[in-house]
Amino acid sequence: MFRSSHARVVLAPLLALLLPFAARASITPDAQAVVERYLKAVGGREAVASERSLHVKGTISAFGLAGTIESWTQRPDRSASVTTIGPFTIREAVDGATAWRVDQNGKFTRLDGKDLEDALASAYFENDLWVTPDQGGAAIAKVGAERDSAGSYVVLEVTPPVGRPRRLWFSEKTGLLDRVVSKRDQQTMTDFMFDYRTVAGRKRPHGNRLEVEGMAMNTARLTLDSVWVNPTMDPSTFTAAETAVSDTRFLAGRGPATIPVAYRVRHVWLKASVNGAAPEEFCSTPAPASLSSTAPMPRSTE
Questions:
Q1: E strands of the chain, at which residues?
Q2: pLDDT block averages, 10 residues each, the chain of length 302
Q3: Residues contacting 70, CB < 8 A, separation 6+
Q4: Class of domain 25-247 as given by CATH
Q5: d(CA 69, CA 52)
Q6: Rounded CA gap, 191 and 210, in Å?
């Protein structure tokens, strides 16, 4: 259970952030026209507004590995996901004003600072709050037009109540959302959406491709398998599970251990032995947007 004293410590600075942004919630007329066209293209404002919660499952491939991803969202501000890829499992959730993660080693972390802001922003976008009548407290403006080999796009910048702005590219031809461009630290990430199909009264992308600029090996591909609209959500889905179990152990002593590493070609390299074999070099690979709650799951059905 989240302690009230901890809640006050977290909520006080968040309220200071949220209230000024809420007062500045706005959308320009030209941006409003783009949003209205998008709503019409996917099935209408009522169809979108009727979704209060969503549970989806899909498959993911990245780093030469394959796996599954399952996510839950509940308006206005809750989201959770479990990603299993190869031997790794990552759990993440946002429960209103707090967020947490259990990494691939079973380590529990309650997020703060920029990590918390990014998680809250992701929950905002995953719940489609930018299409609501008050924009969910965001500021939305049209920032221009773009063109590439696939077509022409009108671009909106959405600045959520907490977190960094994202740029949404809408197809001039269809009015549908084609991609979302966001920044995290020094990285630019693009979530491409495609294969729209009508499911439960609205069009949804059946596939996503998430790219990190300049890091082709980090591209993740997602395909949706199933969706449940407006399921009853168990509150524990979003509650922090602080008793995580590590999947590592020390063979001698309790640690810590000092391990020499080298930094080459934008990766951290170290030597390690697996199951008693001769030491080999291994490198770390930063997780793409899909593994860190920076982009919504694609949504379709079986």
A1: 26-27, 53-62, 65-74, 78-85, 88-95, 98-102, 108-110, 139-148, 151-159, 166-171, 177-184, 187-199, 202-212, 220-229, 261-264, 267-272, 280-283
A2: 37 42 76 98 96 96 94 97 95 95 93 95 97 96 96 98 97 98 91 95 95 91 95 92 56 67 74 77 57 42 35
A3: 55, 56, 57, 58, 81, 82
A4: mainly beta
A5: 21
A6: 4
Q: How far apart are the first and last CA of the chain?
A: 36
Q: Give kind and range of the element (H or E) at residue 118.
A: helix 113-126
Give the pLDDT confidence score for residue 10 in this predicted structure: 40
**Domain definitions of the chain by residue range:** 25-247
Instruction: Check residue 18 and give its pLDDT.
Output: 43
Structure-block tokens of residue 153: 């796009």
Beta strands in 172-276, from DSSP E residues, in sequence order: 177-184, 187-199, 202-212, 220-229, 261-264, 267-272
The single residue listed with the structure tokens 């070609």 is: 265
Task: Enter the DSSP assignment of 236.
Answer: G
Q: How many residues does the chain have?
A: 302
* This prediction's pTM: 0.75
Tell me the Cα Rg of the chain. Answer: 20
User: How many other C-beta atoms are found inside a 10 Å radius of the C-beta of residue 273?
Assistant: 9
CA–CA gap between residue 302 and residue 291 (Å, rounded): 23
- Measured distance CA(294)–CA(205) in Å, rounded: 17
Cα–Cα dist 29/46, whole Å = 21
Bridge partners (DSSP) of residue 205 are 196
> Partners of 204 in the beta sheet?
197
The token pair that represents 81 in the structure block: 């996901």
Question: Beta strand 139-148 with 26-27: parallel, antiparallel or unpaired?
Answer: parallel
Question: Cα(81)–Cα(298) distance, rounded to whole angstroms?
Answer: 13
* 212, two tokens: 């990190």
Residue with tokens 């599970």: 241
